[in-house]
# Entry
Amino acid sequence: MTAELDDAEFMLQALKETDKCEPVQTAFCVGCVLVVRLPDQAPVVLSTGYSRELPGNTHAEANALAKARLLSVPDIAAFFPSLSPTPTIDVLLALAHVYTTLEPCSVRTSGLPPCADALIQAKVKRCIIGVGEPDDFVKCEGARKLQEAGIEIVWLRDMQTQCLAAARRGHIPTSR
# Structure
């Protein structure tokens, strides 16, 4: 399978995560899939997340990262049985490709840390984005921040319409 086909497949998984979001009028529905790619091995889904999945007005990328950080050593060993010693979650996150249906936020009106900052702190390798965040609520510069931090950015332009429709499910855009 080519990388482009892989990217589309994992973005479809991220879109399925958006179906789990409780729609609200003042926030987007976003899905995220964290994938680890090791040489000569099939890609492994490390964790998934969606908007408002965890308590506290949480975002998809932050939820996927939080769930990945909860993986135990035996959990990680089960994902990567051929690796010895078992890699740490920090090593795996540095190899991670993040599939997110909406550009990671760079500003949070709730006061919580932005997802772009969390991905930078995790030192992820690559971020594949379905669509840029519209200016409905804030001006987002997540992709720019990630790129400036050395994270490769890939835009899946062919999936923009699907990702934007999923993001705006249940909310009323405001004019800025």
The radius of gyration is 16 Å. DSSP finds seven helices and five strands in the chain. Helices lie at 3-18, 60-69, 73-79, 89-94, 115-122, 142-148, 160-167.
